[in-house]
Amino acid sequence: MKVSSLSVVCFDDNNYEFINGSLKNDILYPSFAIKNEYNSLDELISELNANIIESKSKYITFVYGGSDLLDRVEFLNRNIMNHSAEILKRFKSSFDIELKDYLIDYSLYESENEYVAYICGIPKHFEELFHKIKNAKFISCFSDIYATSLFFTNENEISLKLNVRNNNTVLCITESNNILFTRGLNIGLKSIAQKIATDGGVSINSVFDYLADVGVDDYETEEKQAISTTIRDNIDRVSLEIQRTLDYYNRYISKGKVESINIIGKFNSIKSIEKYYNKLFNLKINKTIPENFIAESNHEFDDFDYLIEILGAFKEI
Q: Quick check: pTM over 0.90?
Protein backbone atom coordinates (compact mmCIF):
# COMPACT_ATOMS: atom_id res chain seq x y z
CA MET A 1 0.00 0.00 0.00
CA LYS A 2 1.42 3.39 -0.99
CA VAL A 3 0.31 6.51 0.85
CA SER A 4 1.47 10.08 0.35
CA SER A 5 1.70 10.84 4.07
CA LEU A 6 2.07 8.40 6.93
CA SER A 7 2.62 8.32 10.69
CA VAL A 8 4.91 5.68 12.16
CA VAL A 9 4.90 5.04 15.89
CA CYS A 10 7.67 3.00 17.46
CA PHE A 11 7.05 2.10 21.10
CA ASP A 12 8.66 0.00 23.82
CA ASP A 13 7.81 -0.50 27.49
CA ASN A 14 7.99 3.15 28.54
CA ASN A 15 8.62 5.37 25.51
CA TYR A 16 7.18 6.09 22.11
CA GLU A 17 8.47 7.93 19.05
CA PHE A 18 5.96 9.35 16.58
CA ILE A 19 6.89 10.73 13.16
CA ASN A 20 4.51 11.88 10.46
CA GLY A 21 5.83 12.59 7.00
CA SER A 22 6.42 11.29 3.52
CA LEU A 23 9.22 9.30 1.89
CA LYS A 24 10.61 10.51 -1.43
CA ASN A 25 13.60 8.79 -3.06
CA ASP A 26 14.44 7.12 0.27
CA ILE A 27 14.53 10.47 2.09
CA LEU A 28 12.01 11.08 4.87
CA TYR A 29 10.42 14.52 4.93
CA PRO A 30 9.01 14.88 8.46
CA SER A 31 6.11 17.21 9.16
CA PHE A 32 5.59 16.23 12.78
CA ALA A 33 7.78 14.42 15.34
CA ILE A 34 7.63 13.75 19.05
CA LYS A 35 9.26 11.44 21.59
CA ASN A 36 7.64 10.94 24.98
CA GLU A 37 7.28 8.60 27.93
CA TYR A 38 4.08 6.83 28.91
CA ASN A 39 2.97 4.94 32.02
CA SER A 40 0.04 2.86 30.81
CA LEU A 41 -1.58 1.63 27.62
CA ASP A 42 -4.49 4.02 28.18
CA GLU A 43 -2.08 6.94 28.45
CA LEU A 44 -0.30 5.85 25.27
CA ILE A 45 -3.61 5.61 23.39
CA SER A 46 -4.68 9.06 24.60
CA GLU A 47 -1.40 10.71 23.61
CA LEU A 48 -1.28 9.04 20.22
CA ASN A 49 -4.82 10.15 19.40
CA ALA A 50 -3.86 13.72 20.33
CA ASN A 51 -0.74 13.47 18.15
CA ILE A 52 -2.80 12.15 15.24
CA ILE A 53 -5.06 15.20 15.42
CA GLU A 54 -2.16 17.64 15.74
CA SER A 55 -0.22 16.03 12.87
CA LYS A 56 -3.33 15.56 10.72
CA SER A 57 -2.39 11.93 10.19
CA LYS A 58 -4.56 9.83 7.91
CA TYR A 59 -2.66 6.53 8.08
CA ILE A 60 -0.65 4.99 10.90
CA THR A 61 1.61 1.98 11.35
CA PHE A 62 3.34 0.68 14.47
CA VAL A 63 6.73 -0.75 15.35
CA TYR A 64 7.08 -2.59 18.66
CA GLY A 65 10.40 -3.00 20.46
CA GLY A 66 9.34 -3.72 24.03
CA SER A 67 10.38 -6.53 26.35
CA ASP A 68 7.17 -8.51 25.69
CA LEU A 69 8.21 -9.10 22.08
CA LEU A 70 8.90 -12.74 21.29
CA ASP A 71 10.82 -13.50 18.12
CA ARG A 72 13.08 -16.13 16.63
CA VAL A 73 14.32 -17.53 13.32
CA GLU A 74 13.44 -21.04 12.17
CA PHE A 75 14.90 -23.04 9.29
CA LEU A 76 12.42 -25.35 7.59
CA ASN A 77 13.09 -28.36 5.41
CA ARG A 78 11.81 -27.93 1.89
CA ASN A 79 9.67 -31.07 2.13
CA ILE A 80 7.47 -29.58 4.89
CA MET A 81 4.11 -29.01 3.24
CA ASN A 82 2.27 -26.89 5.82
CA HIS A 83 4.67 -24.10 6.70
CA SER A 84 2.23 -22.15 8.86
CA ALA A 85 1.38 -25.10 11.09
CA GLU A 86 5.04 -26.02 11.56
CA ILE A 87 6.06 -22.43 12.28
CA LEU A 88 3.34 -21.98 14.92
CA LYS A 89 4.17 -25.36 16.47
CA ARG A 90 7.84 -24.42 16.85
CA PHE A 91 7.03 -20.95 18.13
CA LYS A 92 4.71 -22.33 20.80
CA SER A 93 7.29 -24.91 21.87
CA SER A 94 10.20 -22.46 21.97
CA PHE A 95 8.49 -19.97 24.28
CA ASP A 96 6.06 -22.31 26.11
CA ILE A 97 3.10 -20.03 25.39
CA GLU A 98 -0.53 -20.31 24.43
CA LEU A 99 -0.83 -19.10 20.84
CA LYS A 100 -4.23 -17.56 21.57
CA ASP A 101 -2.55 -15.05 23.88
CA TYR A 102 -0.37 -13.53 21.15
CA LEU A 103 -0.63 -11.70 17.85
CA ILE A 104 1.76 -13.70 15.69
CA ASP A 105 3.14 -13.05 12.23
CA TYR A 106 6.06 -14.33 10.19
CA SER A 107 8.05 -13.68 7.05
CA LEU A 108 9.19 -16.59 4.93
CA TYR A 109 11.78 -16.73 2.20
CA GLU A 110 13.23 -19.57 0.18
CA SER A 111 16.97 -20.10 0.30
CA GLU A 112 18.92 -22.55 -1.81
CA ASN A 113 18.23 -25.59 0.37
CA GLU A 114 15.47 -24.59 2.79
CA TYR A 115 12.94 -22.04 3.93
CA VAL A 116 13.88 -19.40 6.48
CA ALA A 117 11.15 -17.99 8.70
CA TYR A 118 11.36 -14.98 11.00
CA ILE A 119 8.52 -15.26 13.52
CA CYS A 120 7.41 -12.64 16.02
CA GLY A 121 4.60 -12.30 18.51
CA ILE A 122 3.29 -9.58 20.80
CA PRO A 123 0.73 -9.97 23.61
CA LYS A 124 -2.81 -9.89 22.34
CA HIS A 125 -3.80 -7.04 24.67
CA PHE A 126 -2.04 -4.67 22.26
CA GLU A 127 -5.06 -5.13 19.98
CA GLU A 128 -6.72 -2.57 22.21
CA LEU A 129 -4.16 -0.01 21.06
CA PHE A 130 -4.82 -0.67 17.39
CA HIS A 131 -8.61 -0.64 17.82
CA LYS A 132 -8.78 2.56 19.86
CA ILE A 133 -6.75 4.71 17.49
CA LYS A 134 -9.08 7.34 16.02
CA ASN A 135 -8.94 9.59 12.96
CA ALA A 136 -6.20 7.53 11.26
CA LYS A 137 -6.40 4.24 9.43
CA PHE A 138 -4.35 1.46 11.03
CA ILE A 139 -2.14 -0.22 8.43
CA SER A 140 0.21 -2.67 10.14
CA CYS A 141 2.51 -3.45 13.05
CA PHE A 142 6.11 -4.66 12.74
CA SER A 143 8.66 -5.84 15.25
CA ASP A 144 11.70 -3.59 15.64
CA ILE A 145 13.93 -6.30 14.14
CA TYR A 146 11.75 -6.73 11.07
CA ALA A 147 11.47 -2.95 10.59
CA THR A 148 15.27 -2.73 10.74
CA SER A 149 15.58 -5.40 8.06
CA LEU A 150 13.20 -3.46 5.80
CA PHE A 151 15.62 -0.54 5.76
CA PHE A 152 18.33 -2.79 4.27
CA THR A 153 16.23 -4.43 1.55
CA ASN A 154 18.78 -3.74 -1.19
CA GLU A 155 21.83 -4.90 0.73
CA ASN A 156 23.62 -7.71 -1.11
CA GLU A 157 25.77 -9.29 1.62
CA ILE A 158 25.39 -11.03 4.95
CA SER A 159 25.90 -8.43 7.65
CA LEU A 160 25.67 -8.14 11.42
CA LYS A 161 23.66 -5.09 12.43
CA LEU A 162 24.76 -3.50 15.70
CA ASN A 163 22.05 -1.28 17.16
CA VAL A 164 23.05 0.20 20.52
CA ARG A 165 20.16 2.25 21.88
CA ASN A 166 19.98 4.35 25.02
CA ASN A 167 18.82 1.48 27.25
CA ASN A 168 19.40 -1.75 25.32
CA THR A 169 21.14 -3.27 22.33
CA VAL A 170 19.95 -5.43 19.45
CA LEU A 171 22.18 -7.63 17.32
CA CYS A 172 20.83 -9.22 14.15
CA ILE A 173 22.42 -10.95 11.18
CA THR A 174 20.67 -10.35 7.89
CA GLU A 175 21.05 -11.02 4.20
CA SER A 176 19.25 -8.21 2.39
CA ASN A 177 16.01 -7.97 4.40
CA ASN A 178 16.08 -11.67 5.32
CA ILE A 179 16.74 -12.23 9.02
CA LEU A 180 19.07 -15.11 9.87
CA PHE A 181 19.68 -14.55 13.59
CA THR A 182 18.76 -12.05 16.29
CA ARG A 183 19.36 -11.43 19.98
CA GLY A 184 18.91 -8.61 22.47
CA LEU A 185 21.12 -7.31 25.29
CA ASN A 186 20.27 -5.37 28.43
CA ILE A 187 23.17 -3.00 27.77
CA GLY A 188 22.66 0.50 26.44
CA LEU A 189 24.65 3.66 25.86
CA LYS A 190 23.39 5.27 29.07
CA SER A 191 24.69 2.47 31.31
CA ILE A 192 27.98 2.35 29.40
CA ALA A 193 28.40 6.12 29.70
CA GLN A 194 27.62 6.02 33.42
CA LYS A 195 30.26 3.33 33.96
CA ILE A 196 32.82 5.38 31.98
CA ALA A 197 32.00 8.40 34.15
CA THR A 198 32.47 6.35 37.33
CA ASP A 199 35.71 4.72 36.15
CA GLY A 200 37.13 8.01 34.88
CA GLY A 201 35.93 10.21 37.72
CA VAL A 202 34.22 12.64 35.34
CA SER A 203 30.69 13.95 34.80
CA ILE A 204 28.27 12.10 32.55
CA ASN A 205 28.10 15.12 30.22
CA SER A 206 31.87 15.01 29.80
CA VAL A 207 31.64 11.35 28.77
CA PHE A 208 29.57 12.13 25.68
CA ASP A 209 32.13 14.78 24.67
CA TYR A 210 34.93 12.25 25.13
CA LEU A 211 33.09 9.65 23.06
CA ALA A 212 32.84 12.10 20.15
CA ASP A 213 36.20 13.88 20.47
CA VAL A 214 38.54 11.15 21.78
CA GLY A 215 36.74 7.88 21.14
CA VAL A 216 38.75 4.69 20.79
CA ASP A 217 41.67 6.01 18.74
CA ASP A 218 45.33 5.60 19.72
CA TYR A 219 47.14 8.61 21.17
CA GLU A 220 50.68 9.55 22.13
CA THR A 221 49.62 11.75 25.03
CA GLU A 222 49.03 9.89 28.29
CA GLU A 223 45.81 11.74 29.14
CA LYS A 224 44.01 11.04 25.87
CA GLN A 225 45.24 7.44 25.78
CA ALA A 226 43.88 6.89 29.30
CA ILE A 227 40.48 8.22 28.23
CA SER A 228 40.49 6.07 25.10
CA THR A 229 41.42 2.97 27.13
CA THR A 230 38.59 3.60 29.60
CA ILE A 231 36.12 3.93 26.72
CA ARG A 232 37.40 0.75 25.08
CA ASP A 233 37.19 -1.22 28.31
CA ASN A 234 33.54 -0.27 28.70
CA ILE A 235 32.29 -0.62 25.13
CA ASP A 236 33.95 -4.03 25.06
CA ARG A 237 30.99 -5.27 27.08
CA VAL A 238 29.19 -4.99 23.74
CA SER A 239 32.22 -6.11 21.70
CA LEU A 240 32.26 -9.39 23.63
CA GLU A 241 28.60 -9.99 22.76
CA ILE A 242 29.32 -9.26 19.09
CA GLN A 243 31.99 -11.97 19.13
CA ARG A 244 29.67 -14.40 20.90
CA THR A 245 26.99 -13.71 18.30
CA LEU A 246 29.41 -14.32 15.44
CA ASP A 247 30.69 -17.51 17.10
CA TYR A 248 27.16 -18.84 17.60
CA TYR A 249 26.15 -18.02 14.04
CA ASN A 250 29.28 -19.64 12.57
CA ARG A 251 28.89 -22.78 14.69
CA TYR A 252 25.16 -23.43 14.61
CA ILE A 253 23.68 -21.53 11.65
CA SER A 254 26.36 -20.64 9.12
CA LYS A 255 24.17 -19.80 6.12
CA GLY A 256 27.04 -17.90 4.55
CA LYS A 257 30.00 -15.82 5.69
CA VAL A 258 29.31 -12.65 7.64
CA GLU A 259 31.14 -10.04 5.59
CA SER A 260 30.56 -6.87 7.57
CA ILE A 261 29.33 -5.22 10.73
CA ASN A 262 26.94 -2.34 10.19
CA ILE A 263 26.73 0.10 13.10
CA ILE A 264 23.29 1.68 13.05
CA GLY A 265 22.79 2.94 16.61
CA LYS A 266 24.36 5.15 19.26
CA PHE A 267 27.89 3.75 18.77
CA ASN A 268 28.00 5.84 15.58
CA SER A 269 28.90 8.76 17.82
CA ILE A 270 32.15 7.14 19.00
CA LYS A 271 35.21 8.49 17.23
CA SER A 272 37.23 5.86 15.29
CA ILE A 273 34.80 3.04 16.12
CA GLU A 274 35.15 1.69 12.55
CA LYS A 275 38.93 1.43 12.83
CA TYR A 276 38.72 -0.19 16.27
CA TYR A 277 36.14 -2.79 15.27
CA ASN A 278 37.88 -3.53 11.97
CA LYS A 279 41.03 -4.45 13.90
CA LEU A 280 39.07 -6.35 16.57
CA PHE A 281 36.89 -8.48 14.27
CA ASN A 282 38.78 -8.39 10.96
CA LEU A 283 35.55 -7.51 9.16
CA LYS A 284 34.47 -4.60 7.03
CA ILE A 285 32.81 -1.97 9.23
CA ASN A 286 30.03 0.25 7.91
CA LYS A 287 28.18 3.07 9.63
CA THR A 288 24.57 3.82 8.76
CA ILE A 289 23.53 7.19 10.14
CA PRO A 290 19.72 7.47 9.98
CA GLU A 291 19.78 11.28 10.12
CA ASN A 292 21.38 11.21 6.66
CA PHE A 293 18.08 9.84 5.35
CA ILE A 294 15.93 12.55 6.94
CA ALA A 295 15.48 15.90 5.25
CA GLU A 296 16.43 19.03 7.15
CA SER A 297 13.58 20.28 9.30
CA ASN A 298 12.80 22.03 12.57
CA HIS A 299 12.58 18.69 14.37
CA GLU A 300 15.35 17.35 16.62
CA PHE A 301 16.13 13.62 16.51
CA ASP A 302 19.27 13.39 18.66
CA ASP A 303 17.52 11.47 21.44
CA PHE A 304 15.45 9.19 19.20
CA ASP A 305 16.27 5.48 19.55
CA TYR A 306 14.26 4.03 16.67
CA LEU A 307 15.01 6.11 13.58
CA ILE A 308 16.25 3.16 11.50
CA GLU A 309 13.16 1.16 12.45
CA ILE A 310 10.86 4.06 11.62
CA LEU A 311 12.61 4.61 8.29
CA GLY A 312 12.27 0.89 7.51
CA ALA A 313 8.52 1.06 8.17
CA PHE A 314 8.21 4.08 5.87
CA LYS A 315 10.03 2.18 3.12
CA GLU A 316 7.68 -0.78 3.39
CA ILE A 317 4.36 1.08 3.31
A: yes
